[in-house]
Amino acid sequence: MITKNMTIELKQGLNARPVAVFVQVASQFDSSIFVEYENKKVNAKSIMGMMTLGIAAGENVTVSAEGKDETEAIQSIEEYLSSERSAV
Question: How far is it, in rounded angstroms, from Cα 83 to Cα 87?
Answer without folding.
Answer: 9
